[in-house]
Design brief:
This protein is an alpha/beta fold. It has helices at residues 5-21, 64-73, 88-101, 127-149, 156-163, 170-181, 186-193, 197-210, 227-243, 254-262, 288-302, 317-323, and strands at residues 28-31, 39-44, 48-56, 77-86, 113-119, 213-215, 223-225. The protein is 48% helix and 13% strand. The strands form two sheets. Strands 1-2-3-4-5 form a five-stranded mixed sheet, sandwiched between helices. Strands 6-7 form a two-stranded antiparallel sheet. Helix 3 (88-101) links the parallel strand 4 and strand 5. It is globular and about 65 Å long.
C-alpha cells in the first residue's frame, strides 16, 4: 500500500527536527539507512546512538505488533520513535502490545520507546496544519527524545542546581579536569585546580549527588563524568562562545537557543556586556541563567577548562557514495 501524504510528512519531519537540532553544535547528526524503518539517524558525540522510527497513519493499528517487535528485537537501536495517529484503537492496541512484553525477556528494552501522538484530523495538504504539527513535534521530540538521548537526560532542575554552586567556575573546572585526567586523589586534583581541599571535596560531593559525576562506589572516590555532566560541559562551552560573541552569525544560534530555553537557560536575555565576575559583578543571584553565565565567565578567565569543540553534522553513507 502506498504511503499517505501525512505518513511521509511526519517521517520527514522527525528527521528534519533532529537534523535541525544538531545545528546547536551540541551533537552531530547523520541520516541512517532506512532498512526496516520509516526513518533513522545516528546522533553522535563521543559516542554514537542510533534512533529509528516508524510512522503509523493508515493501517488501523494492524501493524503495531510488528513495529514494536521489530523495535525491541533490533540490537543497535538506542531510541525507537513511534509517530502515530491519535485514535482510541491505536492507543488501546499499543498499550495491549507493550503490556504483553512486560513479563518477558524484552521488558528492559521497552524504555527505548518514545511515542508521539498526532491529532487524527491532521491534513498534510493544509499548510497551517503542517506548521502546527511540526512545531508541536519539535517541542515534544526535544524534551522527550533529544534531552534524554543526546544530552544525558539533562533537566531544567539539573541546570538550576548546577548553577547554584557558590564557587564561580569551579563546577565547570572540575568536570573538565575529571573528563581529561580522571579523578583518583583529592590532593592531586586540588593542586591541579589550585583550590583548597575542603571546597574541592564539597563541590565533588555535590556534583556526585546531582548526577554530573559518577563512581563505581556509592561512597565516591574514583569519579568519571556522566552523560549529563558531559552535556553540561558542552552547553557551557557554547555559552562561552556566546559571551565571546562567537556563537554564530550575529552571535545567534536558533537551535541552541531553543534547546537552552527548554532547559530554562535564557542566555540571550543577558547582554554579553554584562559584568559577570569581579567586585562590580552584575549578577542576579536569583537567576539561574545569570549564575550559569558567571560560572562560564569565571572558568574562562581562570583558564582552567579544556573547552569542548562544537559538534558538526557528518555526511551519510549515501552522500559519501554519491560523491565518489
Amino acid at each position: 500500500m502506498a504511503s499517505s501524504r501525512e505518513h511521509d510528512f511526519l517521517s520527514s519531519a522527525a528527521l528534519r527536527i533532529m537534523e535541525s537540532a544538531s545545528k546547536s553544535r551540541l551533537f552531530g547528526y547523520t541520516e541512517g539507512q532506512r532498512k526496516l524503518f520509516d526513518f533513522s539517524c545516528d546522533l553522535k558525540r563521543d559516542w554514537s546512538k542510533v534512533v529509528a522510527g516508524q510512522t503509523l497513519w493508515q493501517h488501523g493499528g494492524d501493524g503495531i505488533d510488528k513495529d514494536i517487535r521489530t523495535f525491541l528485537n533490533e540490537e543497535d537501536i538506542h531510541a525507537a520513535v513511534y509517530i502515530a495517529r491519535h485514535e482510541s484503537r491505536h492507543r488501546a492496541r499499543f498499550a495491549e502490545v507493550t503490556q504483553s512484553y512486560l513479563k518477558g525477556p524484552m521488558r528492559n528494552r521497552l524504555s527505548r520507546l518514545r511515542v508521539f501522538w498526532v491529532p487524527a484530523d491532521f491534513d498534510a495538504r493544509d499548510e497551517k496544519s503542517c506548521e502546527s504539527i511540526y512545531n508541536s513535534l519539535k517541542e515534544e521530540i526535544t524534551k522527550d527524545l533529544l534531552l534524554q538521548v543526546a544530552l544525558g537526560g539533562l533537566t531544567p532542575q539539573d541546570v538550576t542546581r548546577f548553577a547554584s554552586s557558590k564557587r564561580p567556575g569551579l563546577p565547570i573546572a572540575i568536570l573538565s579536569y575529571v573528563k581529561e585526567h580522571g579523578y583518583r586523589s583529592n590532593r592531586t586534583a586540588s593542586k591541579a585546580l589550585s583550590v583548597g581541599l575542603d571546597p574541592l571535596r564539597y563541590e565533588i560531593e555535590r556534583l556526585f549527588i546531582l548526577g554530573f559525576l559518577d563512581s563505581e562506589s556509592l561512597q565516591g572516590g574514583i569519579y568519571h563524568v556522566t552523560d549529563s555532566g558531559n552535556a553540561m560541559l558542552d552547553i557551557a562551552s557554547r555559552l562561552r562562545d556566546y559571551l565571546r560573541a562567537n556563537l554564530g552569525n550575529g552571535n545567534q544560534n536558533d537551535e541552541f537557543e531553543h534547546i537552552c530555553r527548554v532547559l530554562g537557560i535564557d542566555y540571550s536575555s543577558i547582554p554579553i556586556t554584562t559584568r559577570l565576575i569581579g567586585k562590580d559583578a552584575e549578577v542576579d543571584i536569583q537567576n539561574p541563567t545569570a549564575l550559569l553565565l558567571q560560572h562560564v565567565a569565571q572558568a574562562d578567565a581562570d583558564g582552567s577548562v579544556d573547552w569542548p569543540e562544537p559538534y558538526f553534522a557528518l555526511p551519510s553513507a549515501s552522500e559519501i557514495s554519491a560523491s565518489k
